[in-house]
Batch of 2 targets.
Target 1
Amino acid sequence: MKTIKVHDLTLNDQVAKIAVPITGGTTAEIKEQASQINSMAPDLVEWRIDFLVELQSANLAFDLKIIRDQLPMTPIIATIRTSHEGGHFDQDDQTYLQLIQTLVSLPIDLIDIEVDRPRSIVTTAISAAHSTGIEVIGSYHQFQNTPDDHTLLAKFNQMQQLGCDIAKVAVMPNDATDTLRLMQISNQANQTLSIPIISMAMGKTGMLTRISTMLTGSIISFASTDQHHQSAPGQLSFAQLRTIMQIIN
Ligand SMILES: O=C1C[C@@](O)(C(=O)O)C[C@@H](O)[C@@H]1O
């Protein structure tokens, strides 16, 4: 069994843990969502920094403290999703790197780093995270389609070669075959890589991949607080996913 420990939480490829994104655009919204998530008690939270409406002037340390106050024991993943990969951040590579460097100096547990940026940016970001003891989730999002099998497998491998601690691939399926391919390649990547993986096919056609983690080996499945706060298409709500996971596991 492949495992990775983040503080008291053990992630493994047998039973996926559930992460709930915080998508608040303002400090007040973050506080409200964090308090709502506190009552749900998910395994992890993901703070989607790119949802902040005034990211330039945001006080990240202050906002993070608000999350920590509500969720003192819950591991926090920090994510800056760029517009190219389906998020809202559309600034340059240097600004991306500076933000990552700021985030890894704060009390987060894991950081999402998009590997399709220039290599020097990616490797500097990974080193910065590791120098402060933060685990890196290498991340690749394709919102238009599902690349061919070879490309998908190469993405997983690239993340391992870069020194990421977890390799994550998210795609948009155009049909059932794409979803099944993503599952098959995820399973293969999980068998062949030494690091754990996370994968999902987004949208309705891919929804099953959020549940079939014991087949794919994906160690985390993302679920929204409710249908109005999805951080990607096709997410189930936390209550729905937890119920299904409890039944099938
Ligand atoms: O990478 C992921 C997965 C995700 O895109 C999803 O499809 O659930 C949601 C994002 O918030 C997260 O960063």
Target 2
Amino acid sequence: MQPFALLHRDGADHVEVLTGDVVTVAALDDIPLHRGRPTLAVIPYRQITERGFDCVDDGAPLECLIVRESRREPLDAFPPGPLSLSGGGFDLSDDEYGAIVEDVLRDEIGHGEGANFVIHRVYQARVEGDPIAAARSAFGRLLAAEQGTYWTFLVHTGTRTLVGATPERHVSVADGITMMNPISGTFRNGSGRLLDFLRDPKEVEELYMVLDEELKMMATVAEHGGQVAGPYLKQMTHLTHTEYLLAGRGSLDVRDVLRETMFAPTVTGSPIENACRVIARHEQRGRRYYAGVLALLDHDDQGRQSLDAPILIRTAEISPDGELRVPVGATLVRHSTAAGEVGETHTKAAGILAALGAVPARPAPARTEAESPEVQAALAARNTDLARFWLDSREPGALTVPALAGRTAVIVDGEDTFTAMLAHQLRALGLTVTVRPWTALPHPDVAAADLLVAGPGPGDPGDTHDPKMVALRDLIGTRLAERRPLLAVCLGHQILAGLLGLALHRRDSPYQGLAREVDLFGTPRRVGFYSSFTALAAQDELRTAHGRVEIARDPVDSAVHALRGPAFAGLQFHPESVLSRDGVAVLTDLLNQLMADVISPATNG
Ligand SMILES: C=C(O[C@@H]1C=C(C(=O)O)C=C[C@H]1O)C(=O)O
Ligand SMILES: NC(=O)CC[C@H](N)C(=O)O
């Protein structure tokens, strides 16, 4: 069978039928992109190794359909067809999957390895008869039955066939605007009140966490980072999700946009690099196309590149000999339970499995509740305490702090691209900012910078064998000794606190993806935490070899939320997080104090 693709994109009244030639390439950079010939790339999860991230390599190829002909067909040209499956079941039983959930909660989230992780399992069955005919039948069924999809599609590359109905845009580029679409929170239609789901802290926090992680990606691919719109409901036939939309201006090659955003936190976790290790550690098998993307690369009328890339979830892969796989996962967060996440995988698989005839179909959702004023108010309330920095647009220079203008800052990345968001904030305050990975240490830029920022990152700050902790301790220790301006955030702050003689403690209940108001040296501030460890202090003040240190600590458990000394400050929370309503105010105050006496080598000649 010749390669072809059937695409029904969000809101269209037709199906695009693409035919052409398939080439297999090794890397995203090799994806062909000729004017007048769009390319549909089928990008497997293993491409994440292009970012240097871990994965269990299953060798799934990156195939590209170079489109020779494209035509439109009406929706009714694809009626639901007959389909027969046999021998269906999950590769991991509910108990096995539940055990992995518990391991990840205890050993990873509980130990500071990250905030959220997606673990998958695979529904496997056999299709009777011709696999492509079966895929066409499934496509027609999905087209008829599934609502709220971003793409409903069938791609046949000459060997493998993928058919699915995915709710989620990974990334798109059109008219110079890059967009991402974090979707998280899952409600099984008919399983209770939508309003209760919208107010459930686990579901609320889960969406914020993926919002933060996609803002990190937008901070890398868009000139001024991403601006947040939403939240909205994503109503599908069997379930309802919540989502945000992120948009920003960018001019990168679309293949670079794809590489920098591999892959969405909604299907991996955060921080992303460590999430890939956690996934490899606990899944112990490849993901093939699950969590990868389809990517339609093209040019617009003015010759600018365009990209439309949905995430490969809610998708069946059918092999030439009729083996069918439907991978599905759930986002594990600190409030997760094994039973809850097992249930969520069944709910998510239901749309595609019902279309395949493997589970009973459900009636469409009742729209009335979704449109009620209470539901709309519950959604709007989600933004009340978020950082306006990421929600509003503003004039250039609106936030500039005179004491910072023209000064330089180097942010050392401890393997969490929250640093890219921090860089945008510090630039907005007037600093000239460079970000360096911890692996580049020691680096001459660091010593020269007016301000050094030691960034966040996964791991145990007290680990004396971890090369990253050793390098960060050395970096921070040197800066302290030089008595030059230093801001330390989260992991950086923990290491700073350790060097100042404070004890480090692993929390019984992690503070991963948690927003709260804290007293910061006499001012109440609402800020977001992503930590499992914390420093502890018995007093509000400390005399150290590096001078007098003031401590903002919790009245209940003595956790150190922040500290400041003569030329340094440490923040346990993330001022750059969308959860930190007062993040920019905190940075403005602290940096004003820290930098007030600095004479910049740049301005001083
Ligand atoms: C991981 C999947 O879906 C993602 C995870 C969601 C969640 O955990 O709530 C919701 C939508 C998707 O972004 C999947 O379908 O396999
Ligand atoms: N975000 C961070 O820097 C986290 C620091 C540390 N890994 C913790 O979990 O406490």
